[in-house]
C-alpha cells in the first residue's frame, strides 16, 4: 500500500518529513513530490493520474489550493495539510483547505499537522489491512503507556 505526498513547495518538506517518517514507521510505502497547483498544474495532474497510491496527502501554504486540485483529479481519499506561512500564520491555508465545495471532499488536518495526516492515512489503509490495524492498536497502546509514565512522574513530584 502506498501513500502519495504532494507539497506545494520544497519549503514544506520540514513539515512533511514527519508524515514520511510516520508512514515508514508503519511500513507503508511513500512517494513524494513538489508540485504546485498554480505554477505546475500539469505536473500535479500527471502525478495524481499516474500514482499507484491509495491515499493522497497534499500540503500547501497561503492560498493552498493543492488539496482541492488533487481531490478534483481522483476519487481516492485526499488529506489536506495547511502549512503555516506568512503573513497569516497558516489561517489562509487552513481556510482554503477546509472549505471545499460539496461533492469534492478533502479531510483537513491542523496547520502543520503532517503527522496526523500520516496517521489518518494509515487508519484508512488499515480498513483493508489487518496487520496495519494491529500496528495502529499497538501504537495507541504505546502512547497510552507513555502518558501513564509521565503521569506517574508528575504524581511523584506532587507528593514531594
Task: Fill in the keyword field for this structure.
single chain; 160 residues; alpha/beta; Rossmann fold; 2 domains; 5-stranded parallel sheet; 5 strands; 51% helix; globular
Notes on the protein architecture:
With 160 residues, the protein is α/β, with parallel strands linked by helices. It has two domains: 2-128, Rossmann fold (3-Layer(aba) Sandwich), CATH 3.40.50; 130-160. Helix content is 51%, strand content 17%. The chain contains six helices and five strands, in the order βαβαβαβαβαα. The chain has helices at residues 13-25, 41-50, 66-73, 91-98, 114-126, 130-159; strands spanning 2-7, 29-34, 55-61, 78-83, 107-108. Helix 3 (66-73) links the parallel strand 3 (55-61) and strand 4 (78-83). Helix 1 (13-25) runs parallel beside helix 5 (114-126), helix 2 packs across helix 3 and helix 5 (114-126) packs across helix 6 (130-159). The model has no long low-confidence stretch (mean pLDDT 96).
Briefly, what is this?
By secondary structure, this protein is an alpha/beta fold. The chain has helices spanning 13-25, 41-50, 66-73, 91-98, 114-126, 130-159; strands spanning 2-7, 29-34, 55-61, 78-83, 107-108. Helix 1 (13-25) runs parallel beside helix 5 (114-126).
Q: Please give the order of strands in the largest beta sheet.
A: 2-1-3-4-5
CATH class of the largest domain equals Alpha Beta
Counting structural domains, the number is 2
Query: What is the overall shape?
Result: globular
Element pattern in H and E: EHEHEHEHEHH
The CATH architecture of the largest domain is: 3-Layer(aba) Sandwich
Low-confidence stretches: none
Largest sheet: 5 strands, parallel
Share in β-strands: 15-25%
Tell me how many strands there are. Answer: 5
Rounded mean pLDDT is 96
